[in-house]
């Protein structure tokens, strides 16, 4: 079985962090470091030149932060996946990056093997974000009043058909395509088709944004 090589761009303003990540991740099977950037303002050009599959993006950088860079990058057609690199579990900027289309986040003290696994996971189109982590972020972050956000999210989800809504709620609970297929008596390709339609109808980039919208609408119970 041949392992597909994931092309990775590392973005961090600390040269020691970049060097450490390059050393740790560059030797992993199936990962190729195609470039480094020290600031978010360098990302767009490097993505155009190096065509990475995944961008490992620091949040706090002096000229253009990772949040702004993520928003600009994910607004482009055919953009690579973004995996946020942070020192905080629950942080407003992390949540904003996820809303902008980042596929998940890892902490800077995460073991190298787990970062490699996360890079491969987002490259395969699967988010790196559990329902528990989503709830933690939502609880710790201030912003739009809960009632307003809940109403807006509910209105958006109302655009979905019945089966699409069921799939969206399952995504919000953190279920995989296979788990959704088993629970809703569908084939996995049918689940994938529903997810694609949900993304298109709601103008979202990835499953993380579906999950966040479901959480905004307060449709995931604490026990899920």
Automatic annotation (TrEMBL):
Residues in Response regulatory domain copies: 7-123
Coiled coil: none
Residues with the 4-aspartylphosphate modification: 58
Ranges for domain HTH luxR-type: 153-218
Pfam families: GerE, Response_reg
Superkingdom, taxonomy of origin: Bacteria
Keyword tags: DNA-binding, Phosphoprotein, Transcription, Transcription regulation
PANTHER family according to UniProt: TRANSCRIPTIONAL REGULATORY PROTEIN NARL-RELATED (PTHR43214:SF24), TWO-COMPONENT RESPONSE REGULATOR (PTHR43214)
The protein's name in its UniProt record: Response regulator transcription factor
């Amino acid at each position: 079985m041949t392992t597909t090589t994931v092309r990775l761009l590392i973005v961090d303003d600390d040269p020691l962090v970049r060097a450490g990540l390059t050393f740790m991740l560059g030797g992993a099977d199936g990962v190729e470091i195609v470039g480094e950037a020290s600031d978010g303002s360098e990302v767009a050009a490097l993505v155009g030149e190096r065509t990475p599959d995944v961008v490992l993006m620091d949040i706090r950088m002096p000229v253009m932060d990772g949040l702004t860079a993520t928003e600009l990058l994910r607004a482009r057609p055919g953009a690579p996946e973004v995996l946020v690199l942070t020192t905080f579990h629950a942080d407003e900027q992390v949540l904003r990056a996820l809303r902008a289309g980042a596929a998940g986040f890892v902490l800077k003290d995460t073991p190298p093997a787990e970062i490699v696994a996360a890079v491969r996971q987002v490259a395969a189109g699967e988010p790196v974000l559990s329902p528990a982590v989503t709830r933690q972020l939502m609880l710790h972050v201030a912003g739009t009043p809960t009632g307003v956000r809940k109403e807006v999210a509910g209105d958006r989800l109302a655009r979905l058909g019945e089966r699409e809504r069921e799939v969206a709620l399952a995504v919000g609970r953190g279920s995989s395509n296979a788990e959704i297929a088993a629970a809703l008596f569908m084939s996995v390709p049918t689940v994938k088709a529903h997810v694609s339609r949900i993304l298109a109808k709601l103008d979202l980039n990835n499953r993380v944004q579906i999950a966040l919208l479901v959480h905004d609408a307060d449709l995931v119970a604490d026990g899920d």
